[in-house]
Each structure stands twice: as C-alpha cells, then as structure tokens.
Amino acid sequence: MFKKLLSLFLTLGITAGAHAAATAPDQALRGTTEQIQKLIKDNYKTYRADLPTFYKAVDDVVVPRFDVPYIAQLVLATNYKTASPEQRTRFAETFKNMLVRAYGNAMLDNYNSIQIEWLPVRVDGDKALVNTSMSSGSGQKYAIGFRVRKVSDDWKVFDIAVENVSLITNFRTQLNAEIKKTSLDDVIKRMESGEFAQAAPGAK
Amino acid sequence: MRRAGTLLAFVAFAAVSGCAHRPADDPADPLEPVNRAVFKFNETADKYALRPVAKVYADVTPAPARRSVTNFFDNLQEPRNIVNALLQAKFVQASKNLGRLVLNTTAGLAGFIDVASEVGLEKHEEGLGQTLGYWGVGEGWYLMLPLLGPSTNRDLVGFAGDSFLNPSFYLPGRYDVYAISANVVNLVDTRANFLAADGILQQQFDRYLFVRTAYLQQRWSLIHDGNPPLEDFELPDDESGETSQTDAPKAVTTAAK
Question: Among positive and negative, which fits the CA dihedral A91, A96, A101, A102?
C-alpha cells in the first residue's frame, strides 16, 4: 500500500516536474522569432541578393516551430482522407514552401520596423493561443494569433490568425473548392509552380 | 418604408431563428450563384467608381483629417453600441460607450476627435446582429448585398434594426442634398480605410470565398468580443484519432440541415 502510494507520488511528481520544465508557448515562439530576426539583421544584404539562401534559413529556423503535417491535414480536411500518402507528403511540402515564401518575404521587408507585443496566452490542455499585437512602420496595429499544440513536449504552431482570419479556414475553403473543380493532383501541381504563393492572409 | 422594414425584419427573423452557428469554412450559402453575381457587380462598381474616388480622397486628404471623418461617423454609431450592449446585459460596456459618446461629442468637438480612446475608453462595436448572435441566433444564410457588401440573414436584420439607432435617421431632411453628401463622404472614407487590404484581396485565388470566410470569422469574433471559442478544425472522421469538441455541434448542425 505504502509502496503504491509512494510510486504514485513519484509519478505525479515527475509529471509535474516535466510540465514545469517545458517552456511556455509564448516563450517558445519568442525564441524562434528572435532567432530569425537576428539572422536577418546579420545577413540582410546576403538574403536580399540571394533569396533561396534566405528561404533555406527560414526552413532551418522557423519551419521546425510549425507542425507541417498537421497543418496539411487540417487544410485538406475531407480531402485528406482520400489522399494517398504520396499526395499528402507532396501537398505538405508545397504548402510549407508557399508559406515560407509568403511570410518570409513579409519578414524580410518588415524585420526592422516591426514591433511585436506579446499578449497573455490562453492555454487549453495541450493546445494554446498565443496572442500578439504587431505594428509596422505606419503605426497600424494588427492582431495576430498563433495556435500552438504540444508535440513531444515542444510547442508547435498549427494556425495563424490575422485579425481573426484564420489561415487554416481560409485555405481550407479556397483550396478544397479548387480541388472540387479539378483534382488534388492538379492543385498540388499548380501550387508547386508557385501559383498561390501570395494568398496567405497578412502576407504582402 | 418603416412598415416594410419591420415586416422584412420579421420574415428574416423567422428564417434565422433556430439555426445554429456554422463554421466559417462550411457556411450555409444556398444563394451562392446569385451572391457571386452580386459580388461581381460590386467589384465592378468598386473598380470603376468607389475605389478611384477613395484613392483620390486618400491622396488629397491628410491622414489626421481622414481620421477625424472616421471618428465623426463612428461617434454617430455610439447610440447603437450603447443600446446593443444593454440588450446583451453588458452594463459596464454600455456605460463605457456612453462615456465615449459624451466625451467625444463635447470635448471631441462633435465627434471629430476621439478623446475617449486617449483616456482608456477604447472603441467597441456592438450591433443588433451581434446582439442576436450573442443570444444564440445563428447567422442563417450568407448574403452578398448589392453595394452594401457581405452580410447574413441575421446581420441584415441587425442592419435594418440598427438604422433606427443612428441619430441621422431622425433628421428632418434626411434625403436632402446635405444628408446624401454626408452619406457619400462616409462611404468614401470607409472605403479609403480599406485601400491597404486591396493587395491581399487581389492575391486570393477565389476572392468571393476569401471575403465570405473573412467576413464570417470577423463577425463570429465580434460576437465574442474578440475572444471566440478556439476552433479545433478537426473533422469527425479525421484519422488522427483525437476527439475534438467542435465535432458535437457540427454533427448537430448537419443533422438539423
């Protein structure tokens, strides 16, 4: 009996400890943001002259903060079920590349003037909402929210809401309408050729 | 005119009551072909009339002057905000909006300066559409109105009801040249505030769908004072094996359909 209790306490203690050790969702995002801001600051000219190198840096630093397969699944929604594993991977890859280009360019254009205010986080179990208020040079403020979820003890982004317009909802609506008109393969091909590169809300 | 408005309100109310909220990516849009035609018409009207005028207006008017114009017309909406905050039993919010109305109308020189925001009484929008949504009325069908833009059955009812709460409705000469000019200025000024968003709109591959999802999400957020319940995005038959909270209401709406 005592042994059982002890092991129970130990398990609880360990779990509690593990939870305390994990960083807060906004801190995780802050770390990534600061990392890429510093990289852009140090290599601005190189990145401007050589965009592929910049995209590579975004791929290495920012993309791991995102739960790409999960995003692909949420965007494709019902079409995810019927997609082959190969289609799923190809879609996830091209969708990720599209976001890297769309948001990467916005980051490169505004890294110097952008002010990020980190607002209180809403945690809901293993998911959370990190609210920020971003303002650029013009002083106009935008509410940008990051939906994150816990994946193997790290917080990963699965949605961005710009002024309450969600990336997932926007792409889910538009892409699935396109898929209905043609086919998933066709849409993937068009995305790979860079057709929808600028459609992300908030991207310039 | 008024009687027709009331009748329309009743009919639309009967149509929307009892419908639950639907997610923005799967709204009820049975009029889509008509809506798309109206959207095309609106885009054309915007391209050749409203947008060029708004651009000239934005170019010749200094930003502070434009902000004053926006403030003035916003101030005229404060009675609407107050009444609708009260209808939602948000008494603190109603008193804040009352404070805004008093401060901005007096110290803010008839509303041209938003002094209330500087003392912490931030702008807060409440309308009848939001009030109905607050008490659980679903949005009903998505509508694209000629020249007025996106709406829903619920928000159209709200729009009609709210028009009685705008002080300009009670002006004796509300169809004279001054009143009409004021409405045109308001329209152009509002359009000018959205010029920056044009780029984003043009980059969408289906602008109609973009406006629809954006509008519905925006309204849903306003109903919840900027803090809508967190969307799970997962579908009932997702293979991830995770159960989601949105499944239940979704299933209900499908069944009710």
Answer: positive
pTM for the model stands at: 0.78
- Distance (Å, rounded) from C-alpha A165 to C-alpha B210? 10
Q: Which of B195, B205, B222, B232 is the mutation pick for testing A, counting most A CBs within 10 A? A: B205
pLDDT of residue B212: 95
- State the pLDDT at residue B257: 33
The residue segments making up the domain with residue B46 are: 2-225
**Is B140 contained in some domain?**
yes
What is the number of structural domains in chain B?
Answer: 1
Q: Identify all chain A residues contacting B209, using CB atoms and an 8 Å cutoff.
A: 173-174, 177
Tell me the pLDDT tens digit for each residue of A135-169.
Answer: 876 667 888 999 999 988 899 999 999 888 898 99
Residue B233 lies in a domain: no
**pLDDT tens, position by position, B6-42:** 555 555 555 555 567 888 888 899 999 999 999 999 9
Closest C-alpha among A24, A14, A10, A9 to residue A118: A24
A50 or B255: whose pLDDT is higher? A50
CA B78, chain centre distance (Å): 14
Q: Residue B256: inside a domain, yes or no? A: no
- Determine the Cα–Cα distance for residues B253 and A84; give it in Å rounded to an integer: 30
A96-105 confidence digits (pLDDT tens): 998 888 888 8
Domain membership of residue B241 (yes or no) is no
Distance in angstroms (rounded) separating the CA atoms of residues A5 and A171: 51
**Contact at 8 Å (CB) between B128 and B8?**
no
Enumerate the residues of chain A whose CB falls inside 8 A of the CB of residue B233: 74, 77, 158-159, 168-169, 172
Tokens encoding B75: 């101030």
Residue to substitute from B233, B235, B247, interface A, most A β-carbons within 10 A: B233
Chain A residues whose C-beta sits inside 8 Å of any chain B C-beta? 70, 73-74, 77-78, 80-81, 122, 124, 127, 129, 140, 143, 147, 158-159, 163-166, 168-170, 172-174, 177-178, 195-196, 198-199, 201-204
Task: Write the pLDDT tens digit of every residue in A26-37.
Answer: 989 999 989 998
Tell me which residue in B213, B227, B239 faces A169 most closely, judged by beta carbons.
B213
Enumerate the residues of chain A whose CB falls inside 8 A of the CB of residue B196: 140
Lowest mean pLDDT of B87-91, B132-136, B252-256, name the range. Answer: B252-256
